[in-house]
Amino acid sequence: MDVDIMNIVKQYYGLETAEVGLIRESSDNVLYKIGMGARSYVLRLAKRTKKDTIVFEAQLIHRLISIHIPTPEWIPTLKDESFATLPDGRIGVLMPYIDGIPVEGDNIGEYARQAGELLASIHNATHKLKLEALQTRTIFSELERAIAQQDIYIRSFGDGKEFIEYVTHYMGAGKERTHDDYIIHNDFRPHNLLQTQEKDLFAIDFDWACYGPAARDLAHAVVEWSMLDGQNEPNLHIQKMFLEGYHHVIHSPVSNDFTFWAAFSCLSDTVTYISDKVDRKEELPDRVRSYMYKKFTYYHGLQA
C-alpha cells in the first residue's frame, strides 16, 4: 500500500517521498501522512465521493481560504487540477499537514466556545453563497436511503416499521422548515476540528457539505459536542459554551427549532450507520441500535 501511495503522490503531484503513514480510516476516507523532509502533507483518498461532490467541496474550500477561514488548502496537481482522479475511480486530495490533533476528551469543553465561533464564521461566509458546481447531496440524502431500503428495514428490524415512520415524519417536517440559505459543513463534530499547540482550530472534512439551513448544522454540531457517544443526556455547560460562541459571531438570526433539528440530524446519522451495514451486506441486529439512535430518542422525546 505504501508503494501505491508513493506512486500516486509522484505521478499526480510530482513529489518524491519515502515516508507514508496511515492517519485514520473511516467509511468515507482514508488519510495518509506523506513525509517530505522538513514539510509534510496529508493525502485523502475518498471511498465513495462522487465527482460533483468533490468539485463542490473544492470550490467551497477555495472560497473559505480566500476569506481566511482556518482550513487546509488543497494543493493542485501537476495538471493544475484541485484533485487527482485515479484510474480506479478513487479521488485524491493533497493538503499541507497541520501539526495538530483532533479535539477530543477533556479538550472538548475547553474548545467548545471557540468551535461555535468557527462554525458561525463558516455560516457567515456561506450565507446566500451559490457555487458554480452542482451538489446533489442534500440534508435529506441519508433519510432517502432509508426510504429506498425500507423493505429491508421493516423485514430486518422488529422496530423497522416504526423507524421508517420516524424517517417519513422528519423528512416531511424538515422540508416544511428548510431554507437553503447556507452551505453547511454537515459534520462539524469534534474529531473534524484540529487543535494546534497554539490553540488554534482548523476545520477539516467538508466532503459532506451541502446547501441547507444553519439551524440544522448548528443543532448537529451542538449534539456532537455536548452529548458524546454513550452519554444519556447532553452536557449543558458545553452546550451553553458552544451556543454562546456561535451567537456571538453569527450575523443573521438562526431559527429557534433546536430540538427538531437535533433529532433530525441524529436520525439521519442513524440511517448512515444502518444503511452502510446494509450496503456492505453485514449481519443486522434484531432492532435498530446505535449511539445516534439513542440520541435521537432523547431529542425526539423533548418534542412530545
What topology emerges from the helices and strands here?
Blueprint (H helix, E strand, L loop, with lengths): L1 H12 L5 E7 L3 E8 L2 E8 L4 H16 L17 E2 L5 E6 L3 E3 L4 H20 L14 H8 L1 H7 L3 H18 L4 E3 L8 E4 L4 E3 L6 E3 L1 H13 L9 H14 L8 H22 L11 H12 L2
Antiparallel strand pairs: 1-2, 2-3, 3-5, 4-5, 6-8, 7-10, 8-9
Helix pairs in contact: 3-7, 3-8, 4-6, 4-9, 5-6, 6-9, 7-8, 7-9, 9-10
Could you give a short description of this structure?
With 304 residues, this protein is an alpha+beta fold. It has helices spanning 2-13, 51-66, 107-126, 141-148, 150-156, 160-177, 214-226, 236-249, 258-279, 291-302; strands spanning 19-25, 29-36, 39-46, 84-85, 91-96, 100-102, 182-184, 193-196, 201-203, 210-212. It is globular, with a radius of gyration of 20 Å.
Highest CATH level, the class of the largest domain:
Alpha Beta
Low-confidence stretches: none
**Broad shape:** globular
Mean pLDDT: 94
Q: What is the count of β-strands?
A: 10
- Strand content of the residues, in percent? 15-25%
CATH hierarchy: architecture of the largest domain: Alpha-Beta Complex
* CATH fold-level label of the largest domain: Aminoglycoside 3'-phosphotransferase, Chain: A, domain 2
User: For the terminal residues, how far apart are their CA atoms?
Assistant: 52 Å
As for the number of domains, it is 2
Write the H/E string, N to C: HEEEHEEEHHHHEEEEHHHH
Spatial strand sequence of the major β-sheet: 1-2-3-5-4
**Range of helix content:** 40-55%
Which short descriptors sum up this protein?
single chain; Phosphorylase Kinase, domain 1; alpha+beta; five-stranded antiparallel sheet; Aminoglycoside 3'-phosphotransferase, Chain: A, domain 2; 304 residues
